[in-house]
Amino acid sequence: MAKPVRRQHGLLPDLIDWAESFPSVFGLRPAPGMRVEDFVEDGMYVVRAELPGIDPAKDVTITVHDRLLTISAERAEETTEKNHSEFRYGSFSRTVSLPAEAREEEIKAGYADGILTVRVPVDETATPHRKIEIETGDKG
C-alpha cells in the first residue's frame, strides 16, 4: 500500500495563520477554525485535529458513514470585564475519506493537550487497486 503524504485541510491554511497573527482590529478577529492533518503510520490511518480549549466529551462528535470520517466540534467562550463582555462561539466540521482498506469497526479516538487524534487500523495486506486492461483495435 502506498503511503499518503501529510496534507492540511481547510481553506488557505497559510493565509489564515498569517491573518490570525495580527492583533484584533476594532475588536474583530478571524474566527478560529479546526486544523486537520492525516497520514498513515505503523498500520494506522491517523487523523489529528487541533482543538484547544474544548471539552471533548461535550463539544466533539466523531461519526463514520460510507467511508467518510467526520469530526464536528463546537466552541463557546465568554469574557467579562467591568463594563464590557464578549461572546465568541462557532462550530467546525471536517470530513476525510477513509482508505478502502480501513477497518471502521476498530476506530479509536483520544484527546490530549488540545489535539484530537483518531486512529483507524488499516489492513495492509489488502489490494485496494486493480489494473484495468484497455481493449484496442478494430471491432468488426
UniProtKB/TrEMBL annotation:
Pfam families, alphabetized: HSP20
Q: Which CDD domains match?
A: ACD_sHsps-like
Q: Which PROSITE patterns match?
A: SHSP
Record-annotated SHSP domain positions: 27-137
| Protein family (similarity comment) | Belongs to the small heat shock protein (HSP20) family.
Which PANTHER family does this entry report, sorted A to Z?
A: HEAT-SHOCK PROTEIN 20 FAMILY MEMBER
Q: What is this protein called?
A: HSP20 family molecular chaperone IbpA
Native source species: Kutzneria kofuensis
